[in-house]
Amino acid sequence: xxxxxxxxxxxxxxxxxxxxxxxxxxxxxxxxxxxxxxxxxxxxxxxxxxxxxxxxxxxxxxxxxxxxxxxxxxxxxxxxxxxxxxxxxxxxxxxxxxxxxxxxxxxxxxxxxxxxxxxxxxxxxxxxxxxxxxxxxxxxxxxxxxxxxxxxxxxxxxxxxxxxxxxxxxxxxxxxxxxxxxxxxxxxxxxxxxxxxxxxxxxxxxxxxxxxxxxxxxxxxxxxxxxxxxxxxxxxxxxxxxxxxxxxxxxxxxxxxxxxxxxxxxxxxxxxxxxxxxxxxxxxxxxxxxxxxxxxxxxxxxxxxxxxxxxxxxxxxxxxxxxxxxxxxxxxxxxxxxxxxxxxxxxxxxxxxxxxxxxxxxxxxxxxxxxxxxxxxxxxxxxxxxxxxxxxxxxxxxxxxxxxxxxxxxxxxxxxxxxxxxxxxxxxxxxxxxxxxxxxxxxxx
Length: 445
What we know:
The chain is α/β, with parallel strands linked by helices. The chain folds into 3 domains: 2-157, Rossmann fold (3-Layer(aba) Sandwich); 163-330, Winged helix-like DNA-binding domain superfamily/Winged helix DNA-binding domain (Arc Repressor Mutant, subunit A); 345-435, no CATH class. The chain is built from 18 helices and 14 strands. It has helices spanning 2-14, 45-58, 84-94, 115-123, 141-148, 162-168, 182-188, 190-196, 200-204, 208-231, 236-248, 256-267, 271-283, 297-302, 313-318, 326-342, 383-400, 429-435, and strands spanning 34-39, 66-70, 102-107, 128-135, 152-156, 252-254, 287-292, 305-309, 348-355, 358-366, 369-376, 404-409, 414-419, 422-428. The chain starts with a helix and ends in a 10-residue tail after the last helix.
């Protein structure tokens, strides 16, 4: 095995790093803990690994200090947790007299037998910095946190954000983009992003049929490996049916009891089963449930959640939809952008809000403070739609004591006074996504 390890270590040393689409992911390379990247399959974890290695090399780390092992490589099939000393010995024999820390990257670590012990042992070795990735099919962020008990800092990796999607398409975006002729090209790409989403392989695929085939394969693999095998699901028909229902009805409220009643005659299931399935979907990052904002935990739990899909391209591939659903797709994209921003601000929480017969799509809370209120509407051209969206925003601003809120649209822009000293800033999604709302984090009271 040591000779095999030497070959793999040397292969990495002799190979160049692949071309990557740089992710907008500020990972702390100096933290004295194991760095864990966890997320759904095909979301770009390995290429983010390459990005981190490139950043280390650019910062002065010698490539010989880096050990990269893909634990899915068949040649490592027999490697176990108690072979970690052999990994370090193989590296030392290849590079005797090496000075400085060693940076150990273990890709798809869940394939290593006893990976928890291996990572803990390596992390405790002087002069070793450890980085791992794990697919949510077999290991979740909660699994890593439990197994490593405070020895790790975890980052969730999702498919491309809209900004990263634009970079993959060769479009340079900076603070001047909203004022330049490039804004038309940026805005024009939104339709493609809304249809096929941000999975890296799908973004870079050439034609529509190929994109759809890839997305369908992702969905089927999620069903089989991430869910059925991981959670030992017996009622596979209902599992797939419920997943398609949620993806088809993205950005909609979902009632566990209501759904249970609707399928009870055909499947004879309990509310607990529906609740468990929803929790499993959330665990593997297939959906993001958003709760009603309320200071009462009991009230939150008693109300339906709004469910968003982790990638809107899945809806194109396996869901049921019509062209009238554009507003709900746009709302889903706003939620995903907020999830990407949570990468930089882990204290962020997102809720929806109700006040009387009016609703607000997103309440963004950081720590104890409500920082932003966001309403999403495809278009405000219709007078009744405009009145409904602005009234919902105005009532929420009054309830939270904020003077400014945002309406995110397909392409409309402007500002509107709502009375009581409150103002609605109307901004196109593409501009909000690439530069953020043009406002202070918290409006003055």
